[in-house]
Amino acid sequence: MTNPFLDNRKRLFENKVGFVIEDKFAVSKGHLLIVPHRVYADYFESSKKELDGFNELIFLGKKHLQEKYSPDGFNVGINCGEHAGQTINHMHIHLIPRYKGDVDDPRGGVRGVIPSKQKY
Question: Between 31 and which of 26, 37, 42, 117 could a Cys-Cys bridge form, CB atoms 3.0 to 4.6 Å apart?
């Protein structure tokens, strides 16, 4: 399997386990992807070393977004499997900056993946 993220997008950050790029189909200004060098489908197949490296990249991405866009919050998300919405068969982590007023009512955040369960 080849890495579907190996295109001409600029790598904002990189370490031994992966890299950070902008999402081609951003849901908000600054939406980033954390992508491992190793090609595999499921987050739960990640090694401890990879998890540590991903966290390092997530925090670098957060700092970058704070300095460049000043978001009001963040969502961090991973789709694992077709029935969870995964469309690219290569594990990646979404770092989505959120802005006051970007939705009418953000309460429930990632619970919105099942709209009827978002509000509680």
Answer: 26
**What is the maximal distance between C-alpha atoms in the chain?**
42
Helices (H), the chain: 48-69, 115-118
Tens of pLDDT along the chain (120 residues) come to 667 777 788 999 999 999 999 999 999 999 999 999 999 999 999 999 999 999 999 999 999 999 999 999 999 999 999 999 999 999 999 999 999 999 988 888 888 888 887 888
Contacts of 105 (CB under 8 A, 6+ apart): 119
CATH class of 13-118: alpha beta
Task: Calculate the alpha carbon distances from 13 to 21, 23, 73 in Å.
Answer: 8, 14, 21
Among residues 36, 43, 42, the alpha carbon closest in space to that of 16 is found at: 36
pTM beyond cutoff 0.70: yes
Q: Are 32 and 12 in contact (CB under 8 A)?
A: yes
In the chain, where are the structural domains located? 13-118
